[in-house]
Amino acid sequence: MAFQDFREFLDELRAQGELIDVDRPVALELDVAKAMRKSASVAGPAVVFTDNGTEFPLVGGVYNSRAKALIAYESDEAGVMQRILDGLSRRIAPVVITDAPVHENVVLGDDIDLTTLPVPRYSPDDGGPYITPGIVVSRDPLTGVPDLGHYRFEIIDAHTLSFMAQPFHRFGKNMAKAVARGDKTFRAALVIGVDPMLAYTGPIQVPDDTDDFEVAGGLRGSAVELVKCRTIDLEVPAHAEFVIEFEVDFGTTVMEGPLGEYTGYYTPASMKPIARPTALTHRNGAYFQALLTGVPPTENHTLKQLAFEASFLQMMRLQFPTIERVAIPQSGGVSFYVVIAMRPRYAGEARAAILAAMGTNVRPKTVIVVDPDIDVQDSEQVEWAVSFRSQPARDVILVDGLGAGPLDPSIDESIPLDRRTGSALGIDATYPYGTVIKVAGDACGPSVAEHGLEFVEVADVPGWRDYDFPELDDR
Ligand SMILES: Cc1cc2nc3c(=O)[nH]c(=O)nc-3n(C[C@H](O)[C@H](O)[C@H](O)COP(=O)(O)O)c2cc1C
Fold first, then answer.
1. Among 150, 183, 424, 469, which is least packed, fewest CB within 10 Å?
2. Taking 60 as the threshold, does the pLDDT of residue 398 lie above it?
3. Are strands 270-282 and 436-438 parallel, antiparallel or unpaired?
């Protein structure tokens, strides 16, 4: 059964040795981030920083490893992809309740003091403390459809936040629609500390008219419980640890940034919208959350990877049903570099898949298509395929003038977000259509193409897997 809330997930992490308490004083200014990076570097536990200078415990690193992702999905390595695909293929509508834990404490208007929250600074040149694990719940102003997505929020002062919403993400699109119809403000909520399936729903790639709470319900296998906000017309997860209801004033901006981002580079400071909190609600004994971002891999990347891969796979298979697996590796920020394994059904299909992938909201800068015998998660195998199955003059595609990848630091960052364009590289590293592969024994797995125009013989040592080699038994 799904985790009911953040605390049940923390309990499970603790039970599995994946969560520890640190009770000595730890500074929010960089030390929390250092501790989180160090723990992640040794596949270590998530950490509750109990003595962080505020009244709230701060927990960081809950998404910082594949092992923790598998606990969140209540699955294992062999089953997790299918588990997500099954979850994505059903939708379960949320239910609205009235007596919500997140309303155990309600602070309104001028009484809100954001500086009482344990919000760390992650990289030395960050413009200020940043809420990085927050999920924005916003509604399409025209259709009312709710969206969930992670967005960074900088604490400007006790009553002011600023944020960065890419124009091609739904929170950004929802605000653009409000501006276009002449609204002066936009109201939404920032949610912190949720059942992990809600967190893993944030990055899922779905069409804009999708109710993300229904997607989360499908992934959980049961309805998400929501409660009406106190100051705005919106429903938020009832079991969240914290909710900040806020209003964006389209007339005012403030300097936001820099922030050490998921690309491994700082995004420069620039003028961005102001968000003014209208309510801060939280559970008794609420856990605040920290989420490390910066040079990959971090928990930002782990949070995105399975969700992006599964939803991208599902989307691409609608048009290319012989796609078997995809990889969107952490080294490419879980966006810029995509590998697809497919069995092309006719000449040119791999190139069509490359162009389709470039057109998705993942916005990859490099797309490589390989045959299904290649393990897409193994970069050495992918490099092998690119090296020996492709001919650059024949198999490379370059497309210019595409929407730039999110926060691509190689593009002039003084250009407004909605005007940035970039180029993308595609490599068709599948055997030319119709190639017959001769494989001796089990050397390189099954043959990958059937129709027999060219002939390729794989040079590996047949039978090596079954070779009796007792000296290696305990390795
Ligand atoms: C931890 C984290 C922080 C993120 N921060 C931002 C952000 O500040 N701005 C943004 O536009 N996208 C950000 N993203 C990416 C979007 O949340 C993500 O692409 C998501 O799929 C967008 O979903 P939506 O279009 O449904 O809102 C972040 C992702 C993660 C995992």
1. 469
2. yes
3. unpaired
Whether 303 lines ligand 1, by a CB cut-off of 6 Å, is yes
Please give the Cα distance from 269 to 81 (Å, whole number).
38
CATH of the domain at 353: 3.40.1670.10
Are residues 13 and 117 part of one domain? yes
State the distance from the centre of ligand 1 to the C-alpha of 86, rounded, in angstroms: 23
Residue 113 has pLDDT above 70, yes or no: yes
Q: Is 202 in the pocket of ligand 1 (CB under 6 A)?
A: yes
Q: In this predicted model, what pLDDT tens digit does every residue of 9-66 receive, in sequence order?
A: 999 999 999 999 999 999 999 999 999 999 999 999 999 999 999 999 999 999 999 9
Sequential DSSP letters for 218-262: HHHTSPPEEEE-SSSS-EEETT-SEEEEEEEEEEEEEEE--EE-T
Residue numbers of the domain that contains 42: 6-290
Q: What is the pLDDT of residue 463?
A: 84
Residues 243, 353 within the same domain: no
Q: In the predicted model, is pLDDT for residue 446 greater than 50?
A: no
> Considering the domain boundaries, does residue 237 fall inside one?
yes
Residues 432-457: what's their mean pLDDT? 66
Checking if the pLDDT of 448 tops 60, the result is no
What tokens does 319 get? 């048009």
Q: Are residues 222 and 335 in the same domain?
A: no
- In a domain, residue 106? The reply is yes
For 249, residues 6+ apart whose C-beta sits below 8 A from its C-beta are 184, 185, 273, 274, 276
CATH number, residue 274: 2.30.110.10
Q: Would the CB of 18 count as within 6 Å of ligand 1? A: no
| 466 domain residue, yes or no | no
444 inside domain: no
For residue 152 and ligand 1, the question of a CB distance below 6 A is answered with yes
- Centre of ligand 1 to C-alpha 349, Å, is 31
CB 181 within 8 Å of CB 141 = yes
pLDDT at 449 over 70: no
Atom of ligand 1 nearest to the CA of 308: 21
